[in-house]
Amino acid sequence: xxxxxxxxxxxxxxxxxxxxxxxxxxxxxxxxxxxxxxxxxxxxxxxxxxxxxxxxxxxxxxxxxxxxxxxxxxxxxxxxxxxxxxxxxxxxxxxxxxxxxxxxxxxxxxxxxxxxxxxxxxxxxxxxxxxxxxxxxxxxxxxxxxxxxxxxxxxxxxxxxxxxxxxxxxxxxxxxxxxxxxxxxxxxxxxxxxxxxxxxxxxxxxxxxxxxxxxxxxxxxxxxxxxxxxxxxxxxxxxxxxxxxxxxxxxxxxxxxxxxxxxxxxxxxxxxxxxxxxxxxxxxxxxxxxxxxxxxxxxxxxxxxxxxxxxxxxxxxxxxxxxxxxxxxxxxxxxxxx
Amino acid sequence: xxxxxxxxxxxxxxxxxxxxxxxxxxxxxxxxxxxxxxxxxxxxxxxxxxxxxxxxxxxxxxxxxxxxxxxxxxxxxxxxxxxxxxxxxxxxxxxxxxxxxxxxxxxxxxxxxxxxxxxxxxxxxxxxxxxxxxxxxxxxxxxxxxxxxxxxxxxxxxxxxxxxxxxxxxxxxxxxxxxxxxxxxxxxxxxxxxxxxxxxxxxxxxxxxxxxxxxxxxxxxxxxxxxxxxxxxxxxxxxxxxxxxxxxxxxxxxxxxxx
Amino acid sequence: xxxxxxxxxxxxxxxxxxxxxxxxxxxxxxxxxxxxxxxxxxxxxxxxxxxxxxxxxxxxxxxxxxxxxxxxxxxxxxxxxxxxxxxxxxxxxxxxxxxxxxxxxxxxxxxxxxxxxxxxxxxxxxxxxxxxxxxxxxxxxxxxxxxxxxxxxxxxxxxxxxxxxxxxxxxxxxxxxxxxxxxxxxxxxxxxxxxxxxxxxxxxxxxxxxxxxxxxxxxxxxxxxxxxxxxxxxxxxxxxxxxxxxxxxxxxxxxxxxxxxxxxxxxxxxxxxxxxxxxxxxxxxxxxxxxxxxxxxxxxxxxxxxxxxxxxxxxxxxxxxxxxxxxxxxxxxxxxxxxxxxxxxxxxxxxxxxxxxxxxxxxxxxxxxxxxxxxxxxxxxxxxxxxxxxxxxxxxxxxxxxxxxxxxxxxxxxxxxxxxxxxxxxxx
Amino acid sequence: xxxxxxxxxxxxxxxxxxxxxxxxxxxxxxxxxxxxxxxxxxxxxxxxxxxxxxxxxxxxxxxxxxxxxxxxxxxxxxxxxxxxxxxxxxxxxxxxxxxxxxxxxxxxxxxxxxxxxxxxxxxxxxxxxxxxxxxxxxxxxxxxxxxxxxxxxxxxxxxxxxxxxxxxxxxxxxxxxxxxxxxxxxxxxxxxxxxxxxxxxxxxxxxxxxxxxxxxxxxxxxxxxxxxxxxxxxxxxxxxxxxxxxxxxxxxxxxxxxxxxxxxxxxxxxxxxxxxxxxxxxxxx
Lengths: 338, 259, 428, 285
Ligand SMILES: Cc1cc2nc3c(=O)[nH]c(=O)nc-3n(C[C@H](O)[C@H](O)[C@H](O)COP(=O)(O)OP(=O)(O)OC[C@H]3O[C@@H](n4cnc5c(N)ncnc54)[C@H](O)[C@@H]3O)c2cc1C
Ligand code: SF4
Ligand code: SF4
Ligand code: SF4
Prior knowledge:
The complex is a heterotetramer. By secondary structure, chain A is α+β, with helices and mostly antiparallel strands. Chain A contains 11 helices and 14 strands. In chain A, strands 3-2-6-7-8-9-1-10 form an 8-stranded mixed beta sheet. Chain A has a 4-stranded antiparallel beta sheet with strand order 5-4-12-11, with no helix packed on it. In chain A, a hairpin with a 4-residue loop joins strand 4 (about 65-70) and strand 5. In chain A, helix 8 packs across helix 10 (about 290-310). Chain C has helices at about 40-45, 50-55, 65-80, 85-115, 125-150, 170-195, 240-245, 270-275, 280-290, 300-325, 370-395, 400-410, 415-420; strands at about 1-5, 15-25, 25-35, 160, 165, 210-215, 225-230, 235, 245, 255-260, 265, 340-350, 350-360, 365-370, 425. The complex binds flavin-adenine dinucleotide and iron/sulfur cluster (SF4) (3 copies). Flavin-adenine dinucleotide (FAD) sits at the interface of chains D and A.
């Protein structure tokens, strides 16, 4: 893999290079948190020192919360062929890139979801390794290092960034920006890189013990704590919206007033909602909140292994700072272990 | 050309906002009037035909006089599909916030003294399903434009309108808001029927629950949570009641047990 | 005996009717009946927190929701002792103008105009008056847009709270509002001439007293802490009860009010009659152009007054936007006091609106809300009586009379759902 | 990133079908015959018994329905649809010639290859007879490829029995050992239909060779446990008991998530599961 250097003094010039490749999106403050927003001002492109945990993850670009998939008349259905612009997201942490890789695997296995893939092809990911905060636990889910799925990946090594090139587009970008990207890496780069990694590894403050949770999910299936969590859960669905590897959606039809034209809408659904598993005859396969939570945690900690070899939780910590009643991967893992 | 479905839009006690919300669909108003054969719509037109049989009856407002009960029953007879339109008709809205506390007559006396009214005999406000069979519900205080238009078109095509089964939090997350409840504000989003597109949390204002209570609402857990966050139990329960209408009445006892 | 009965007033908000009994040349009975059931909102306000009352009292009426919100906020801010900050103040004013535009354009174009042009509703006018209808709807939509941007929703938004706003409108939103106001003015000027050119019947005329808020510094505007009457009286808002006496009548769930023992009128016409000479710009030109003696005795001119007020709003918005663009967003303030009484008087589109609260230890102990329609009902009955008598003399039949009477009610733009909340509770 | 993937066919886009005939099977179940509209006739829409399709109606929505016809009778698609809600109410309003959208087939279907040469026990409850009809017809049309065919069918009452005339007629057939029952009230059919739960028909199932038999079950969610208990008494291997399950589905192709059970998607890994899966995974029945 190619690696280059970007001097910090040239950081502000990055925007004008990226701009040539599409819309530039970067984490912007939203209250105490962040969200990926489209930016127009080079000043808004900030490569933060710590990992930025936006309210909604990168999946919002790949499968928008709510969009039309088909248009139809009584005679025929036609796919929504809207032009999707290239988007460049900046400052994406490693765990999120893992999440995108999981999504991509998921959406291309068995059947290929073109709505996802159309957007994936148009998404340029500029990763950035930052320092963890008090909630990050990607070191426990093996997602703190990422090897594919990004176009460029930045490491902050003091007065410059080390930039990995991860794709053809990434290569195009560094070529376009040849005045700021420098092929000649400083001599001390490997030493500094090791230092950075060491410091990062030392900085984790959240250390849930994830060892063996997969089997514990099975063993503790009937444990009482699930009901306690069920009594607490508000069924607000925030956890599933925030989680970078949650994919469930619902489909409904909308008609246009006074016209023989309609649209089929696809929008995020949540397994925490009551009618998620409801079928005809009012039979509900997951009538209780506890059952629905079990489904979610099975999916995060166990089920994905069956298909893809690793669980789908990437340790981003979103569930921790999203769930109002403290149901999240670390608290569930703690219960599994007690 | 297909026959246009006939519709009647009737208002009882409320703020008339649901009908107004319909008139507020400025861009679609011409379409609405041409797609539907509107027989009754007092707020918007004067050539109303009170006796018309209608395919769809949209009923706004709660019922709180004997005269209204009578009229509502007549509308039921005339309508193929009767739709409760907006919070007042769905669950009573604010005028039903004290429903079941047994003090209505006292309140009435406080206000009007011993006056004997000739217009009608008043009573405590109730949602319309207490009097007639309701075929579909459109929640909202008032219903939001996209959801209302969707419901209208569905009704026009003979479909049941989709009833949102997700709380306000879903749309709040779609708009990528920092969660107010998480940050210790008294937000009723998780207890409230979605569809409004979460305008209030999007303006940093906690949801006050104006669309009414969602099926799965976990009042007990939210009560416990808010108590932990430092709110007084009676303040929380009172907040639950303001827009809870008739739906909260059965839950109150359980909540009182918790505190 | 001739009876004129309008069972159900059309093209007004809420459920009301008119009942008139004529015996030969004599008027036996005239009643504006309000069937809309009482909601006892004020009684329900007792024992609640100010923020809760501020969110649910606007549910009294959808079309005046912002006025109710501003009135309630003004009342409570006096109790809770907030300092007024400029950004908040002017943002509220902008939001208020949004409601004026929305409500007035709905009333003038969609509810009243069809009467004069002989249509059952505004949509039916499309064939001949497509342009007017489209632009009027666009104007109405503009009013809604302002309320949606500032208050969160166009009906019952929650963004405005005591102490400020959850979120202030952004720069681009303000610029958008400003631009649209400027662009709408031309249409409104020509539309005002259409309304000004209508023939106004004189079968009801009689002098009356008008009342409205008296904005400070001799300015035109929609709120203040003083009331002004067309007989020259000026009264601090907190003393409203001294001159406006309430009573209950059996044929209506709305209470009535009298000024010095006589009925009076509030609303756009009242505002222009009392403080219209303070207008500036195009609004002043149009005021000068159309103002005449008959304005003092004929409520039907209310529609014209509303049109002129829309011009005022469209001229005021760019000014406000410019001011707001320069001011930084303030932090949300905290209350400094928990008890006391506060009266908030504002001008709703249909006239004077009073919110009067008392608090003890942070909770509401007393609430009184008087809505414009409630103030107007007595005068409305008076004019309806006059008209009935005169039209009867001219030999008109029942249905012809009924049509004319309805027009009067509509000119007043009664907001019946408002009216039924006129109640006063005193809980010790 | 560059991705290699097959962009066709469009997963979520239905093709248009035309209703050519319909009839009532029970008071709330109607049988529909559909053929592709001209422009879609060339598409190869082969399917297996036990698979399902997503049916779409303009503006109302989409839902999964088992194919009731057999691939041995090409060109026509048949469905037995119960009126239970929004979409199905609208489907019931369809007239001959009306159009609806269809996509699929989805699901694994019955493992026909494994079943060849075997004795087959089919147990159907209620609407379960719809997907099992596909299998039944398939076996009947290829009768020589299978061993014994035992069919047990239970319905709530006589009126609710799907394909009743066909079944009653088949009772005399040499090709099939068929037994019918209703929960209550067999008036008028005392000779042909018994009274009692479907499990009670197992008394007629005798001389089973467990090594050479496969059982296929489909019915309401509550039925599986009881039926499986009965079948296990014949010592059938766990993976020779096949259950056709139902879950909520929105996409039919393993993306929307609703039908997930542990790591399996009912729409891809099912709807036909083995009894071993049931033991292996919780929540299946
Ligand atoms: C693999 C499979 C095969 C099926 N085969 C048949 C069949 O052959 N004949 C038949 O009549 N029915 C069949 N069903 C059930 C059928 O899908 C539902 O009856 C149908 O979705 C109800 O739709 P509706 O819009 O009329 O009901 P709604 O008004 O939407 O709701 C009625 C009930 O149906 C449930 N429901 C809604 N959507 C779905 C969905 N997508 N999947 C499952 N349940 C849903 C609701 O939860 C509710 O309880 C099958 C279901 C599955 C999963
Ligand atoms: S975020 Fe928490 S409360 Fe909300 S649905 Fe998820 S687990 Fe339940
Ligand atoms: S702010 Fe309120 S509505 Fe939004 S997610 Fe949090 S609890 Fe739900
Ligand atoms: S209060 Fe809640 S339900 Fe009502 S509009 Fe606001 S967010 Fe929606």
